[in-house]
Write a structure and sequence with these properties.
3 domains, 13 strands, 8 helices, alpha+beta, rod-shaped, Helix Hairpins
Length: 456
């Protein structure tokens, strides 16, 4: 039961029903008040008409027994003097229950004059032994002979009260029915609208249970929020599948890369333990250095995958960094324009070192590093280009070289300690700095790697 009440459909139905209930209650109250006010106003008009008719006759001195409208049982009339003493009343009128007459009413009137102001009040009247509710109009008049008088005339409220009761009964019967219709329609509409969401939930639960990231949630053939949710969910699943697959390949490749030097190092140590004179110390050192480099690369990639980026506010002079990384390398020339970028000096230095290592492994004789500024529609950029005079990278492989553990051929293989991670690390660092790293071709056919970083 708690689960159902906590569902979106139940909350939407309850909310819609409550809103409609409040609206109906307010509308019903307004209707009843308006109806009552209108009917009361009509009763006041009838009572005033009778009171002024009698007052007009009194103003010209008509005797009480000759007054018209005094024998109308529907509109009882009573005449009182300034002291409140009843002087005349309609036939069969036994009593009226109204506030006491104003003793000063009519005192400032001239003989035969009728007061322009009419006082209205609710009360009761007993006619022929039966009491009922009435609206009374009180009109002051000055009789030429008897002085100030007050005429009370009443209009019955039975018809008005009956109409109000009928309207109230209709509202009390209609409101629950209307609320039930609203609740039912809302329940059905939300059920239909949320049916795709339930399908998405079930499929996501199945994906979680089976760990099959190749599955996708159903996408409804609509253009609403649910369809966008399904599409975004599928995009997330696709990205997650790619990430997991990349992670699996990475682990498998890393295990493969670690297996060879570890096996070689173990063999050499075992031979050395059995025959100390046959220990290949240089080979053991090379395998150890290779393991150290591979471990450092794997650790850096793990930090980059975890979202590690440059510290905010740090600035790096790319020209000085390029000269620093090129120093001591044979056949490397630098043509650098001073330009600063925001980023990590250590990570950007690693990018340049990896690019220079890669270029030197495949260059015939020379490697050139250039640093320059570029301005374009998308802002100002610092461009670092590392070019070699080797065989270059085939156009079809210019994206594959940035994948982890990718070696295109024997020439771009494990020679001189390459791990197959240098270019992958370089691109990841470039992306973390808001830039790009691409592979192109030099005019002479060599490889050209271009690093572009935004200038603050």
């Amino acid at each position: 039961m708690t689960h159902r009440l906590g569902s979106v459909r139940a909350r939407a139905t309850l909310g819609a029903t409550l809103v409609v209930a409040v609206a109906l209650l307010a509308a019903g109250t307004a209707v009843l008040l308006s109806l009552r006010s209108s009917l009361t106003g009509q009763a006041d008009t009838r009572a005033e008409r009778s009171a002024r008719a009698v007052a007009a006759q009194l103003a010209v001195g008509t005797p009480y027994q000759d007054l018209s409208s005094m024998d109308d049982d529907e509109r009882p009339v009573q005449i009182v003097d300034a002291s409140g003493r009843r002087l005349a009343a309609s036939e069969d009128l036994q009593r009226i229950g109204v506030p006491a007459a104003d003793p000063d009413a009519g005192e400032d009137l001239d003989p035969g004059e009728i007061d322009d102001e009419t006082r209205f009040t609710g009360g009761s009247a007993t006619v022929d032994g039966e009491s009922a509710a009435y609206r009374f109009a009180a009109v002051a008049v000055r009789d030429p002979e008897k002085g100030p008088l007050t005429v009370y005339a009443g209009a019955p409220l039975e018809a008005e009260q009956s109409a109000v009761r009928t309207a109230l009964t209709a509202l009390l019967l209609g409101f629950p029915l209307l609320l039930a219709v609203v609740a039912g329609v809302t329940w059905l509409v939300t059920r239909r609208a949320l049916r795709p969401v339930e399908g998405i939930r079930r499929e996501m639960a199945a994906i979680t249970a089976s760990a099959d990231l190749a599955r996708r949630v159903p996408e409804p053939d609509t253009h609403d929020e649910v369809a966008r949710l399904a599409r975004t969910t599928n995009e997330t699943l696709a990205a997650l599948e790619t990430s997991v697959e990349r992670q699996r390949r990475f682990v498998a490749d890393a295990s493969h890369e670690l297996r060879s030097p570890i096996a070689s190092l173990r063999t050499q140590l075992e031979v050395g333990a059995a025959h100390p004179g046959l220990l290949d110390v240089e080979g053991a050192v090379e395998d150890t250095v290779r393991l150290q480099r591979l471990a450092a690369d794997l650790l850096l990639l793990a930090r980059l995958d975890a979202g590690e980026g440059p510290a905010p506010g740090a600035r790096v002079d790319l020209a000085a960094l390029a000269r620093e990384e090129a120093a001591g390398r044979a056949g490397v020339g630098v043509d650098a324009e001073a330009v600063e970028v925001a980023g990590s000096r250590g990570q950007l230095g690693r990018v340049l070192a990896n690019l220079l290592d890669n270029a030197q492994r495949h260059a015939r004789s020379a490697v050139t590093v250039t640093v320059r500024r570029e301005a374009g529609r998308d802002g100002r950029w610092a461009v670092v280009a590392v070019a070699d005079d080797g065989d270059g990278v085939p156009e079809a492989d210019r994206e594959r070289v940035f994948e982890r553990f990718v070696r295109l051929d024997a020439a771009r293989g494990r020679d001189e300690g390459g791990t197959g991670l240098g270019l992958a690390i370089a691109r990841d660092v470039a992306v973390r700095h808001g830039g790009t790293l691409t592979a192109r071709e030099t005019p002479t056919g060599g490889a050209l790697f271009e690093l572009r970083l935004p200038v603050p």
